[in-house]
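Could you help me review a protein record that somebody else here produced? Do not assume that whoever made the record got everything right. The record follows directly below this note.
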Amino acid sequence: MAVTFNSAKPVMDEELRILSERNPGYQFERNARGELIVMPTGTDEAKAVVRRNTEEVQGKGRFEVFEELFADDFVDHTTQPGTGMTPDKAGVRRLYMYIREAFPDFRAEIHWQLADGDRAITYKTYHGTHQGCF
């Protein structure tokens, strides 16, 4: 999504440079009328990271990819109460392993994704045959 601002004066190159330096999550451009256009950056990259995690880590159990995708200081804001899982990288790794053991044929079907800057939302359905403790 891009937002266009009709400013009273055209935005100059130096002003674009300063805006870009101070706001790394956004791209700033000028249209033909000199209006400022602001767009979040990284939307495709954010969706690609979530898709890769869903397909390769959750779906195929490729935990070397997990190590590549998740930062050491990752915080899980969706930890389920009563599971004993910690809201950090280690807790999410344990959850994914637990799911793969309980549902050996586990797979996720991604229906759609939305992104704004470095944040992505993915609507998906999980499929699998329950064959273990969960």
